Amino acid sequence: MDKTEAICETLKNKGIRLTKQRKSIIEWLADIEGHINAQELFQKVLKKAPGTNFSTIYRNLEMLVDMDVVRKFNLNDNTYYYELKSMGHHHHLTCIKCGKSVELEFCPFKDIDKEILNNMDFQPSDHIFEIYGYCKDCKANKK
User: Fold this and answer.
1) pLDDT digits over 67-115, tens only?
2) Which residues of the chain form beta strands (DSSP E)?
3) By C-alpha distance, which of 16, 128, 20, 17 is closest to 83?
4) I need a labelling partner for 28 at 20 to 30 A (CA). Which of 7, 13, 72, 115 fits?
5) What are 20's strand-pairing partners?
C-alpha cells in the first residue's frame, strides 16, 4: 500500500468522506518531495479537479492538519507550508533571499526532547526548528 492509499484508508476509517478534491490534495502532497504552500497546491489540484475553489483547498488542508496527517509550518516569509507527516521528522535551512529550503538530515533536539520528558514531566509531541540565512548562491551574489 503506498502513502496515498494509506492516508485515504486512515481518513475512511475515521469517517471522513474522500472527495475528488481531498484525494487530489493527498496525491499531490504524497507526490512532492518537501513542502508546498496552499496557493501552489491549489494550482496543482486544478489540473486534476478543475473548478475547485481555493477555499476548498485551504479548508481541507486545515482539516488534514487537525487530523494529524499534515504538518503546517511557516518558513519566516508570512506563508504557511504543508507536508505529509509521513515525510518523517525533519528540520529546514531556509535562504531568506531566494526562499530555497533544504532539509536537515538529523534532529538537533533528539536528546533535548528526552531531557524535557525526564526532567520537566512534559511529553513533547512535535517541534519545528528552522535556521534562516543565505544559501551558497545568494551569499556569493551578496558580496
Assistant:
1) 888 888 776 678 888 888 765 566 778 787 887 777 777 777 777 877 8
2) 36-37, 70-74, 80-84, 92-95, 101-103, 130-133
3) 128
4) 13
5) none
What does pTM read for this prediction? 0.67
What mean pLDDT comes out for the span 121-133?
A: 78
Cell of 93: 535551512
What is the spatial distance between Cα 103 and Cα 75, in angstroms, rounded to a whole number?
12
| The three cell numbers locating residue 4 | 496515498
Q: Is 103 helix (H, G, I), strand (E, B) or coil?
A: strand
CA 29 vs. chain centroid, Å, equals 8
The alpha carbon of 80 is separated from its chain's Cα centroid by a whole number of angstroms, namely: 9
Summarize pLDDT for 10-49 with one digit per residue, the tens: 889 889 998 888 999 999 988 887 778 999 999 999 988 8
- Using a 10 angstrom Cβ sphere, with 0-12 exposed, 13-18 middle and 19 or more buried, the burial of residue 64 is buried
Instruction: 46-52: list long-range contacts, CB under 8 Å, 24+ apart.
Output: 48/20, 48/24, 49/20, 49/21, 49/24, 52/21, 52/24
Q: What per-residue confidence (pLDDT) applies to 52? A: 92
